[in-house]
UniProtKB/TrEMBL annotation:
<dbReference type="Pfam" id="PF03816">
    <property type="entry name" value="LytR_cpsA_psr"/>
</dbReference>
<feature type="domain" description="LytR/CpsA/Psr regulator C-terminal">
    <location>
        <begin position="339"/>
        <end position="425"/>
    </location>
</feature>
<dbReference type="Pfam" id="PF13399">
    <property type="entry name" value="LytR_C"/>
</dbReference>
<feature type="domain" description="Cell envelope-related transcriptional attenuator">
    <location>
        <begin position="76"/>
        <end position="229"/>
    </location>
</feature>
<dbReference type="InterPro" id="IPR050922">
    <property type="entry name" value="LytR/CpsA/Psr_CW_biosynth"/>
</dbReference>
<dbReference type="InterPro" id="IPR004474">
    <property type="entry name" value="LytR_CpsA_psr"/>
</dbReference>
<dbReference type="InterPro" id="IPR027381">
    <property type="entry name" value="LytR/CpsA/Psr_C"/>
</dbReference>
<protein>
    <submittedName>
        <fullName>LytR family transcriptional regulator</fullName>
    </submittedName>
</protein>
<comment type="similarity">
    <text>Belongs to the LytR/CpsA/Psr (LCP) family.</text>
</comment>
Length: 454
């Protein structure tokens, strides 16, 4: 992400004299060697930006402090397609979930030497099997978007770049605490330095959204990084820009065609780049928890919505052209309804009430089972939301959609919440998450997610 920030924010006034010798710091990879049957090139430029583990390059003290224990996985932790428009006035960033269901093209496993004629896996596993080449080929096969350049950044580069920038400001409306990464932020505005910023973008256990909410935070952080660099004048200072660039390029891998000339040309063209000229989204998901034998639980893309998104990318159109923005509901809730699984029970003797409640909740975005049942003890007067205490935030979000409902904690119930529709049920109230762009497929501009914006 910080590599992208340097790429898109390179100042027009900085020339070869400042960047002299920095090109040699980039580790090169022949990412496109012998590739055939590739998608047709579109307009603009597409960069596949990959974040890798790289914890073996971080000191033991830093690994302990920022909860980076364990052996390096040599896998992709983050993957994005960054599209720079042909007129260099817009950047569109599409996050590709690491657990996306994918089928590899034919290849040879670089670890075992075993030939594969294409098999299902999670998208981030393509890197382990075939490195950058197989990763690019798999992404191109899934999106039909031709990748022009490849950039790979590890933890070390990320931390150092944020530190050189003097930290990046993020804001949160609720506490963010993850015992796995050690992230612990109270509500409010915070300036994060390298290690803490890494905790922020890596955390996956803040709520039930896992990777989807993590990608939202990564997108927000990228917008905040762009905002920091453009508003502070850091990249107009040749020496400071050199320091930022050296911090990135020292631990970056890139294809052979991406060098200083490309960086400078892009920087000159994008000297007026700002958060308002960037937009972010995640590939629309059709099936959450799509089980694949030998692979596990994956995320299966929505084929029609994904096709519209990548068509817009190929045709160099704003991502919002791929579909309408989500309407703004009335009530904000802590968890996106699309991440809340709900079983509806009819707690009355009124025929069809369960189906009516199930449909109304589904229309508002909740992941209902679609098969309401009758409660064991009907004649419930007040609607009840039964939930496992571990999913209390999801329960509050569901209860907000059912005015007057009663929250009832049930230990051991699990991740699926239960609605027992009572005689008091009248309607489902529309709700929306506290932070924009949590649901896959929603599109936001960078200036909509930096601090100080609604």
């Amino acid at each position: 992400m910080t590599a992208l920030s340097v790429v898109v924010l390179a100042s027009a006034g900085i020339g070869h004299a400042v960047l002299s010798g920095l090109d040699a710091d980039i580790t090169r990879v022949d990412a496109f060697k012998d590739m055939k049957n590739r998608p047709r090139a579109g307009h603009g430029m597409n960069v596949l930006l990959v974040g890798t583990d790289g914890r073996d390059r971080i000191s033991g003290a830093e690994r302990r402090r920022f909860r980076l224990g364990g052996a390096p996985c040599h896998c992709t932790d983050t993957m994005m397609i960054v599209h720079i428009s042909a007129d260099r006035e817009r950047a569109s960033v599409v996050s590709l979930p690491r657990d996306s269901y994918a089928v590899t093209p034919a290849h040879t496993d670089r670890t075992t030497g075993k030939p594969h004629h294409g098999h299902p896996l999670k998208l981030n596993a393509a890197y382990a099997e075939g490195g950058p080449q197989l990763t690019i080929r798999t992404v191109e096969s899934m999106t039909q978007v031709k990748i022009d350049h490849y950039l790979e950044v590890d933890f070390t580069s990320f931390m150092r770049t944020v530190d050189v920038l003097g930290g990046v400001e993020i804001c949160t409306s609720r506490p963010l605490k993850d015992s796995y990464t050690g992230l612990d932020l109270p509500p409010g505005t915070h300036r994060l330095m390298g290690g803490q910023a890494l905790q922020y973008v890596r955390s996956r256990h803040l709520d039930g959204a896992s990777d989807l909410s993590r990608m939202r935070r990564q997108q927000r952080f990228m917008a905040a990084t762009i905002d920091r660099a453009t508003s502070s004048g850091i990249l107009l200072n040749p020496m400071k820009f050199r320091d930022v660039t050296r911090a990135v390029l020292g631990s970056v891998r890139a294809d052979k065609g991406f060098g200083t000339d490309e960086l400078l040309a892009l920087g000159r063209a994008m000297r007026n780049f700002s958060p308002s000229s960037s937009e972010f989204t995640t590939v629309p998901i059709g099936t959450m928890g799509y089980a694949v034998k030998g692979v596990g639980s994956t995320l299966k893309w929505d084929p029609a919505a994904a096709r519209r998104l990548f068509t817009a990318l190929r045709e160099d159109k704003p991502l919002a052209a791929a579909g309408p923005r989500r309407p703004a509901p009335a009530v904000r809730v802590p968890v996106d309804p699309r991440e809340i699984r709900v079983q509806v029970e009819n707690g009355t003797r009124t025929p069809g009430l369960g189906r009516r409640v199930d449909k109304a909740l589904a229309a508002t975005g909740f992941r209902t089972t679609g098969t309401p049942v009758n409660a064991a003890a009907p004649a419930v007067e007040r609607t009840v939301v039964a939930y496992d205490p571990r999913w209390d935030r999801s329960a509050k979000s569901l209860a907000a959609a059912l005015p007057g409902s009663e929250l009832r904690a049930v230990a051991g119930q699990g991740a699926t919440l239960k609605v027992i529709a009572g005689a008091d049920f009248r309607q489902v109230r529309p709700v929306r998450p506290e932070e924009p762009a949590q649901q896959p497929g929603a599109v936001v501009r960078g200036d909509e997610v930096v601090c100080g914006k609604p």
